[in-house]
Amino acid sequence: MFSKRLWTLLLFPIFYCFGFAHAQLHPKEALGRIVFDSFRYNNFKPFFERSIFALTEQEFKSFLYGIRNQSIRNELIALHRQPFPENLITASSKWEIAFQHNWRRQWRHLSRNSPNLVREQSFLPILREAHGYQIQWETVKLMAIEELLPVTWKNGRFVVKGDADVDEDTSIPRTLHMDRNLSYRLRLDNLTYSKAFMIGFHPEDSEKTYDRGIVGNGSGQGDVVVRFDQSSPNRLHYFCPDQVGAGGNIMIRNYSDFDKPNQRSDLLLTFSYGEPRQAYQILIREILWTPKGPLFCEKPQWLGETYSTRGLKFE
Question: What pTM value is reported for the model?
Answer without folding.
Answer: 0.88
